[in-house]
Write a structure and sequence with these properties.
The protein has about 260 residues and is α+β, with helices and mostly antiparallel strands. A hairpin with a 3-residue loop joins strand 4 and strand 5. It folds into three domains: about 40 residues, no CATH class; about 80 residues, Immunoglobulin-like (Sandwich), CATH 2.60.40; about 130 residues, 60s Ribosomal Protein L30, Chain: A. About 10% of the residues have low confidence. It is elongated and about 135 Å long.
Length: about 260
């Protein structure tokens, strides 16, 4: 029975004409109280909540960096990329890649690396430009060059290493060959190979790792025909960084064998 039906049932029965004064008043009050009780017990209609439409997917974000921005031919660079809200990420010169990462490359010419990140919310793109300069006079591999650049010390192309490793990477073999060819053309040069590391790890660990890296470069150059008597090695560990930022792109630049030559 609904609330309205209950009221219609109560009020027709409250005909108090035959009752006297107080009795009639009492019965009227009782009927009113019953009506209030019935109305207060009636459930109110609850409005149906409207389900909001789903929010649109967030647009992807993408950033691409390449360091260093200018290198000589045969020198390595590092590209680092970051994306968000992307399910399909690719770099034009590499192919499909993970949403975030870094990679060491050795470009042979100036290149604009192009990152494309695609997701449910759209497409985002980013570019990074690398400029490759020609070999300077006296640089490794320059045919017919006999003169060294001015100064007591000359820096040649460096050899880069992976994290916690001192083996010569395949992409560094061309640099080793260029340095070895140059040194064989100038047999009177004495030079030092400096072993360097990134900031992670203890001082003692990195000094030992830097020594192993310098030794690995020395061994590779010796196998390439360079006189062992012309080579000295020293380890600086993490004490003389080339890059001081705390990120992977910077750390990769600090993991190197640095060649310094003297006449």
């Amino acid at each position: 029975m609904t609330c309205m039906e209950s009221l219609l049932w109560i009020w027709p029965t409250t005909n108090f004409r035959g009752a006297r004064g107080r009795v009639r008043l009492y019965l009227s009050l009782l009927a009113l109280m019953l009506s209030v009780a019935v109305l207060s017990g009636c459930p109110s209609k609850t409005p149906v909540a409207q389900t909001p439409p789903p929010a649109p997917p967030p647009p992807p974000t993408a950033s691409l960096e390449a360091t260093p921005a200018t290198v000589q031919a045969g020198q390595a660079i590092t590209i680092t990329w970051k994306t968000e809200n992307a399910t399909d990420v690719s770099i034009e010169q590499i192919g499909a890649v993970q949403p975030n990462g870094s990679q060491t490359l050795t470009p042979t010419e100036s290149t604009t690396y192009h990152l494309r990140a695609k997701g449910p919310g759209g497409v985002q793109e980013s570019d990074a430009r690398i400029t490759v300069t020609g070999m300077a006079a006296g640089a490794p591999g320059a045919p017919g060059s006999e003169e060294l650049p001015a100064g007591d010390a000359v820096s040649r192309l460096d050899i880069f290493f992976d994290l916690d490793d001192f083996s010569i990477r395949p992409d560094q073999q061309a640099t080793i060959k260029n340095d070895a060819d140059f040194l064989k053309q100038h047999p009177n040069i004495r030079f030092v190979i400096e072993g360097h590391c990134d900031e992670r790890g203890s001082t003692e660990y990195n000094l030992a790792l830097g020594d192993s890296r310098a030794g690995a470069v020395q061994s590779a150059l010796t196998q390439g025909g360079v006189s062992p008597g012309n080579i000295k090695t020293i380890s600086y560990g993490k004490e003389k960084p080339f890059c001081t930022e705390s990120n992977e792109a910077c750390w990769q630049q600090n993991r190197r064998g640095h060649l310094v030559y003297q006449k």
